[in-house]
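S.,

Sequence below, as promised.
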Amino acid sequence: MRLDNKTAIITGAGQGIGLAIAYRLIEAGAQLVLNDLDSDLAKAAARKLGDNCVAVHGDCSDLEIIRELVDTAENTFGSLDITVANAGITLFDGFFDYQPDAFSRVMEVNLSGTFFLAQAAAKKMRAQAKGGTLLFMSSVTGHQAHKNLAAYGMSKAALEMLAKSLVVELSEFGINVNAIAPGATATERTLEDENYEATWSRITPMGRPARVEDIASTALFLVSEEARHITGQTIIVDGGWTSVSPSPY
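The prediction came back faster than expected:
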């Protein structure tokens, strides 16, 4: 699954799943425009990934940052072939207590950021007239109810519908669009909970939470030529959790 001479944008790529995807795409020969809200994380990640990666830090739900990402891909590497809208935020709270500002922020980053990045990337791909690939990051919470994550879950379910909907408008331009729905995944953030790995190992049929490499391997397949005829789909990577869905609480 080689990506030689292809250019990819990856948002939320300073650490965790996004950084793991960046490593897999670089190893496959891609050139990267890496984005993260945290400037230090973005710059450090780009240094680790080498000369074929440039960093653009900033809020990826900001239309100016979105334009900068697309322009950087073209100006630095000459084209835009792949866009991975990985960035997202999770703000926990019960339904009765959830506040409007938290709701708006989740929808702004998870939905608006993905929608308008996909729009800008697809316009560039259409103009290039050689096709391309969009990949969204959903979640198992878009498939199964999860306590204190109603807003987050609905945003992730909406991303899967976006992937389906765009098939109608993008296929004629050779652009395919898919989503990944990770289950519990061991990252720097989730492992701040000292019980996280033990809890999810107990309730996941495959006996452990996902590793970031599990998600990255799926992403590499979906953005590769081997997946060109797959579009409008969501692949769940959760070790079987959604088949049984026991609560971690």
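The chain has one domain: 7-237.

Coffee later?
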